[in-house]
Specification:
The protein has a seven-stranded mixed sheet, with helices on both faces. The protein has a four-stranded mixed sheet with strand order 1-2-3-13. It folds into two domains: 150 residues, Aspartate Aminotransferase, domain 1 (Alpha-Beta Complex); 244 residues, Type I PLP-dependent aspartate aminotransferase-like (Major domain) (Aspartate Aminotransferase, domain 2), CATH 3.40.640. It has 14 helices and 15 strands. By secondary structure, it is an alpha/beta fold.
């Protein structure tokens, strides 16, 4: 079938919950994807920061093929080798604790929210159940994760949202401290806000959250679903601040394209999850964990991939700031590593569609922020092609 036929079938049979760009992706390799008519596109959103090693990364494809011949699913009634090995690697990459596996970022957040409340219940303090979260945050679409996300547009039509969340301004330590009460159990924050438009906090923000949590006996949770696994140039974004959270949630890039999520919690916290406290039928299944193992082993084998992320991310950021000086509709460029946002003074959706016409895939979030999150192993040629297409498109919008 051609693209028009497939999109027509989609409109007929699939719920309209997505504002899709008019593109059917048939196959991909590295930083490129191809539509049914054979047109090639440079992918600079990589499945919303999921295809961290590019499309169909050969070692991931090989691991999936090999694992599919041995064991695809066994459930968590039993042990499986890939899950155990991946948990070990994640702890070695982060901090001393234990891992709970699930299928997505939203599920990782749900597990974290439950664990925070369960921890205080087991400590004999059930009155401490509130969690402070940040304006503009995005933690997922399930009810708990949606309620934790401090965005009114996400809540609209689903009221009443779940109680127990207190919203404060992002990057405002004073606001966090003022919100702490005898009911407060934890603080949930993204080291960089992705869906809000790649918002980077001040250098002392994460450290300040750690200090507040320690002073008031709170559980500190970092949502690294979008920023983790090398995206910002370090294994995890929080590591650049020199502190560790009590709970860490990861997903997206962990499977290199295969759905998987994980919650990591320090031992004094995770002991609250005992038999029957939480579970997942598919969480940590052998197939997903075999892909996750390839990702973490690639990231930790040497510093080449992280250095590529830092080097090309810095180069792209610099080029985008040069472009900003030449186009009046660009308000700000910000980001770290290969998670970069460009805030506009105009609607970003028409620019996304024009880039698509010219063979470049990007994304617009918060209506006016172009988001760029290419694979971590892009080349200098990829980066150069991205800049050239973007600049060409911008010339068509200047003065409109």
């Amino acid at each position: 079938m051609n693209s028009d036929e497939l999109m027509s079938l989609s409109n007929q049979y699939i719920m309209g919950t997505y504002n899709r760009s008019p593109l059917v992706i048939m196959k991909g390799a590295g930083s490129k994807v191809v539509d049914p008519e054979g047109k090639e596109y440079l992918d600079f959103i990589s499945g919303i920061a999921v295809n961290s090693l590019g499309h169909c990364y050969p070692p991931i494809a090989a691991a999936l093929q090999e694992q599919s011949r041995r064991l695809i699913h066994a459930s968590n009634l039993y042990y499986s080798e890939p899950q155990i090995l991946l948990a070990k690697k994640l702890i070695e990459m982060t901090f001393d604790g234990k891992v709970f596996f699930c299928n997505s970022g939203a599920e990782a957040i749900e597990a974290a929210l439950k664990l925070v409340r369960k921890y205080f219940t087991t400590e004999g303090k059930p009155e401490r159940y509130e969690i402070i979260t940040m304006d503009g945050s995005f933690h997922g679409r399930t009810y708990g994760a949606m309620s934790a996300s401090a965005q009114e547009k996400l809540h609209k039509g689903y009221e009443p949202i779940l109680p127990g969340f207190v919203y404060v301004n992002y990057n405002d330590l004073d606001a966090v401290e003022k919100a702490i009460s005898s009911k407060t159990a934890g603080i949930l924050a993204e080291p960089m806000q992705g869906e809000r438009g790649v918002v980077v906090p001040s250098p002392h923000y994460l450290k300040g959250l750690r200090e507040l949590a320690d002073r008031h006996g709170l559980v500190l949770v970092f949502d690294e679903i979008q920023t983790g696994l090398g995206r910002t140039g370090s294994l995890f974004a929080y590591q650049a601040s020199g502190i560790t959270p009590d709970i860490l949630t990861v997903a997206k890039g962990l499977g290199g394209g295969v759905p998987i999520g994980a919650m990591i919690a320090k031992n004094h916290i995770n002991k609250a999850f005992s038999f029957g406290s939480h579970g997942s039928t598919f969480g940590g299944n052998p197939l997903a964990c075999s892909a996750g193992l390839v990702v973490v082993e690639t990231l930790t084998a040497d510093d080449v991939l992280l250095e590529n992320t830092r080097r090309l991310g810095g180069w792209i950021l610099g080029k985008l700031k040069e472009i900003q000086s030449r186009f009046s509709f660009i308000k700000e460029v910000r980001g770290k590593g290969l998670l970069i946002g460009m805030e506009l003074l105009i609607d970003g959706r028409p620019i996304v569609l024009k880039c698509l016409e010219k063979g470049l895939l990007i994304n617009c979030t918060s209506d006016r922020v172009l988001r760029f999150a290419p694979p971590l192993n892009i080349t200098s040629d990829d980066a150069d092609a991205f800049i050239k297409i973007l600049e060409t498109v911008f010339k068509e919008f200047e003065g409109k």
